[in-house]
From TrEMBL:
Domain AB hydrolase-1: 70-262
Key words of the record: Hydrolase
Hydrolase recorded as keyword: yes
Xref: PANTHER family: ALPHA/BETA-HYDROLASE (PTHR43358), ALPHA_BETA HYDROLASE FOLD-1 DOMAIN-CONTAINING PROTEIN (PTHR43358:SF4)
The organism of origin for this protein: Roseateles saccharophilus
Name the UniProt record assigns to this protein: Alpha-beta hydrolase superfamily lysophospholipase
Regions annotated as coiled coil: none
Keyword Acyltransferase: no
Amino acid sequence: MNRVLLITLVLALGVVVFSLAAGEWLTRPARAALGAPPPGLPGEALRIPYGDGQQVSGWFLPGRAGEGAVLLLHGVRGNRLQMQERARWLQREGIGCLLIDLPSHGESSGDRISFGRREALGVQAALAWLRHKLPGEKLGGLGVSLGGASLLFADRQPELDALVLESVYPTITDAVQDRLVNRLGPAGAWAAPLLLLQIPLRLGLGVHELRPIEAIRSIRAPVLVASGTEDRSTRWVETEQLFNAAPEPKQLWAVPGAGHEDLRDFDRQAYEARLLPWLQSHLRKAPVAWGETDLGKMAA
């Protein structure tokens, strides 16, 4: 009996230690030195101040007048490099881009990753900068995972004309449980509460404050929600729940066979064929029809 008790205590201690280490790693800043845009990515490096001495770093790539511009936001523990191929593609089509490192990522300031809530302050600053830079253009936002959640939490943003959300979690409870079950099997569901209990201690936020599914109810922009059908970190049923909570106009795109990964890398041709006409229809001053086949034809 004592041996069974000892084994149980050791296992319980192991779970606690694992959850503490995981909580530290998940919220620790993901720094990277990036500097100027890579060769072949024509643009300018910038730093956008906000709040009390905070700043977000990024690259701005100009487009053509009347084609609009998009704020591109990467996933958790990534940086603006994750979005550079989207930026190259959009700029070729005449759409301007602003790529930033979310707070606590890359070269931006921040002391903890907060799963979109505090990252939203940097997103608001970037959107305000983009609106000031391009006062006559329509603006869109495209966020992957954490980037999409940050867009939804940016509730004081200048009004957007288009919003693309890729692989965005509906609630932090879902996100934690999905990822732990994905890695640990059924035992992950038991470990999830230990990670969730750390959120108020590490971030000063309640679990109830990390619910993109609530934030999406108040958006005013047309939204396209996309995710992979085989995503085990944000399950398809959760993507449907997020989509159902969004107001009209909205569209849902299931990417067959894709997991929690870069949807453009998974199927570049399908990605560009789906998103380009949708973005053009909302960002061009003279919108194109959905049935237009010559996607390379740009307005003067």
